[in-house]
Specification:
This protein is mainly β. The protein has one domain (22-90): RNA polymerase II/Efflux pump adaptor protein, barrel-sandwich hybrid domain (OB fold (Dihydrolipoamide Acetyltransferase, E2P)), CATH 2.40.50.100. The relative contact order is 0.23. The protein has a four-stranded antiparallel beta sheet, with no helix packed on it. A four-stranded mixed beta sheet has the order 2-7-8-4, with no helix packed on it. It is elongated, with a radius of gyration of 21 Å. It contains no helices and eight strands. Helices cover 0% and strands 42% of the residues. The protein has strands at 22-23, 30-31, 36-39, 45-47, 51-53, 59-61, 65-75, 81-90.
Length: 91
């Protein structure tokens, strides 16, 4: 007979570092072209005038200027509108 219970698989062993997501430049800050403004997973914030979104959803400044944020309604393919934050850079 066995004297010890069978050892199960442990579930809490993944120890990956954080991804350092979030807003990197805030409203009113001066930025140069190419700077990272927001790092995100999925398009929770959308790129507005003076910005562009790279393929991993990071929003960069396309021009040199001042960062600003605005709440907008974005219409999805189904017709439903969802609130999103638009990131803009103006001179």
């Amino acid at each position: 007979m066995s004297h010890v219970k069978a050892g199960g698989s442990s579930k809490n062993v993944h120890d990956s570092p954080g991804q350092r997501l979030g807003v990197k430049r805030f409203g009113g800050q001066k930025v140069n072209a190419g700077e990272v403004l927001v790092r995100q997973t999925g398009a929770t914030k959308i790129a507005g005038p003076g910005t562009y979104m790279s393929r991993n959803f990071t929003i960069h400044a396309a021009v040199t200027g001042t960062v600003s944020f605005a709440k907008v309604k974005k219409t999805k393919f189904t017709g439903k509108s969802v609130p999103r934050t638009q990131v803009m850079v103006s001179n």
